[in-house]
Every structure is written in C-alpha cells, then in structure tokens.
# Entry
Amino acid sequence: MCYHCPRLRARCLEINRESKHVDFQGKRTLIMGLGVNGSGIASARYAAQHGAIVRVTDVRSAELLAPSLRSLAGLPIEYVLGQHREEDFLWAEIVIPVPGVKRNSPFLRLAREHGAYVVQEIALFFESCVGRTIGITGTRGKTTTTTLVYEMIRAAGQHAVLGGNVSGVETLSLLPAITSATQVVLELSCWQLSGLEPFKMSPSVAVMTNVYADHLDTYDGMDDYIAAKANIFRHQRASDLAIFNYDNPITRRLGEESHALTWYTSLERGGSFARGSSDIVPFIFTDTPLPGRHNLENILLATTTARLLGIADDGIASTVRSFHGVPHRLQEVAIHNGVRFINDSASTMPVAGQVALQTFREPLVLVAGGNTKHLPLGEWPRLIARRCRDVVLLQGTGTDELLPVLRDEAHRLGVPDPVRGVFDAFPAAMDCAVALSRPGDTLLFSPGFTSFGMFLNEFDRGDTFVAYVLDRNRDKRL
# Structure
C-alpha cells in the first residue's frame, strides 16, 4: 500500500478497526514518545512482537533514554531521537502516543489527516484483556487507592495484576499472565481515559477519588477535563459497578450520571452507601499508618471497593494496618538529628501542596516550586505563610506565580517573609533547607508544580530528593 495515498490507507485501516484487535502484522507503526516509565517501552515491544515495522520517535536524547533502549535491545526497532519529524508521521500507518502527548499535537493531526490509525496503549490493552478490569481515577489519591485495592485483593488470595498509569509498569506486557479469573487493577489517568473514549470502553469497576482543577494547559477548561475523567464510567454496563467520593462536589455530581450499580463513600457521613439509599455502611478501617484526612478518603474508597468485590473484612483490615503508602506521596524517607524528611514529589499542583501542609502539625521547612500548569493557587500561599517557618523554592514558571502572592499573604497576615531563596540547582536548594532545619522540624519536599526542566518527571525529582537525603545521612552531614 502506498502511504502517499491517504484515502486508500484510511480505508484499509478502517477495515481493521472493525475486528476486535488491531492487526499490526507488516504495518508501519510509530511510537510517539519512548519515555522512561513503561508505556512507550511496552507499546514498542508489543508492536514488534506482533509483526509491526516499528519506529520510535522521542524528543529526548539516547543518553537520557538509555535504560529504555537497553530494555528493548534485540528487537527490530528503528529510533529517531532528539526530535519529532513530520516524515515519520507521514510514514506511519499506526501511531501509538504515550500518555501526556497533547491531543492537539500537530504531529498527531498530520498523521490523522494522512490516514493513520491513532491508538493508545491502554486501548490495545482493554481490547485483549480477558480479566475483570478495576479502574481508579481522580486528580489526587488514585495511586494510593489503586495500590490499596490491589493489595487487598492479593491478601484475599486472588490473582491480581497492577497496571495502567503506574510508573515502571509495562501494562501491555501483563496480558500473557491474565486469565478470566484475574482481577486487573488499573490506575487510569485522564489521558488514558481519553484514549479509551473513541472505543466506547470503560472498566467493569470504576472508582473516582476526586476532581480538582488540573491539566488546564492541555484541556479546554474544567468541563473538558471533567469529561475526560468521566470516561471511566460512561460506557459501563448496567451490571457493572461504580464508586464515587461523595465529599467531593464534582465526583458526587458525576455519580448521579452513572448507569451502573453506584455507590458513594463519605468521611463526613461516616461510611459508604448505595445511591438512593440512606443506609450507611460504617467506615471501620481507620487503623492506618498513613497520615492525613485525604488518606482516610482513599482508604474508605479502597475498602468499600474491596467489600463490594467480596473481599473479607479481616484481609481488608490487615492490608490497611500494614500499608505505609507509595513512593513520592508523603513518603517518610528518614529521620536524622530529630528532623523528618518527607518526599511528596508527586505534588504537581497547588491543591496537592495544600493537602501536604494540612497533614503535619510540627514546624515545617518547605521545599517547593517548579513549572506551572496554569492552575489556581487557591489557599496554598496563605497556608504556606501560616504554617511554614522557612521556605526554599526551586526556580520555575510556577515559582514566579507563587512568590509574589506568598509574600503578599505573609504581609497581610503580619508574619515574616518565609522565603529564604530561589534556587536553580537542586543540591543548593537542599543544602539551604537542611541548614535551616532544627530538631523537631519536618523538612517537606512538596513542590506544588511540575518538574519539567530541572528533572525528567516527578518520579525522577522524588528519586533525586531521596538520594540526597540518604547520601547525606550516610555521610553524617545532615
């Protein structure tokens, strides 16, 4: 087939769309974004193993992508790194973009205009998955809730796999291990849910933690962002299950739109209840090492989901008692010289920074800052001024937004300006924060903005923080 003939190519691919699975055999397949966290790697591997002619394009260098390239060594894959080229998108019959690629990308638009079939990894996974899919989404708390549900199912002795928007997991590579008896627990981002929407697919069990303003640099306002999240339940069957956080106004409203068997959870009401019922099932699983009210919300959602899946209370309770959280989310890294070091690098939005500050009562030295997603700062600057004795900021466009507002709030509250500097190098920022810390303090790394520019992503940022703390701890220099 001549790839300069878009009509012919589009018709041939349309025929393939009518079958259950995408036919990769002999198809020119372009992976847009190899990345370092699993999705691009899995897509490239899957396409190559299914007979595609695979090309990978990524704006990052081979040096930065070295671990990903090593994991694909030996497979017949061509790489175009350090740039995206129009010719690659004209060449492709199938394009698989990694999550995070903007929907209005001119490269994707070019590919579609020339007849390419654009599909996300998660849609390929859903097409072939024979297990029961349990999807969890939300602006905050989805990773913790997802991991809890997964661990509760495992504690009950059932076969489960964990995938989706989970760092380091190649979700497509899970397929050979999945049977009809497998519980497939998936964290689903808004990008992945947007990737499912064209295929009218939703998980059998849908869980929504909350919705706050986020990714407004990508979506056309809040309504567009909420619509993307709502794909988690839009295409469920009447016999499927949907669970919503009643205490969040947006997820409460979305619960009324569900066509599945629908439950709500509510800390304010003290438990969970079926939509339309006034009977509350009490929340009894509060014996947890996780800090903060937000984690109680996550635990209530997870325990309600597990109960509705038939998991016994003793297995649920033991999981809650032993679960110490996931990396980069209010993760206690060390206590040294009386100072607690907390890694909250997954805090990529102001509301997450606000939640982190509300979790602790001891004096705080805050390390924050980064690049903006053009989200409202809300109460975060005021809370910083009230709660933080010392603030160290990382340079970035978000920091430029925060700094004047924070100083205005400190002046309005009649407290000293807490900002001790803005740094363009992470080690220097941390050296300053450590020097400011005293016994009994918490040094909280909760950026409130994205990591782009200084780090590969929020996970690289968190790993850098952890490495700094542990290295200095070993060197006895903290």
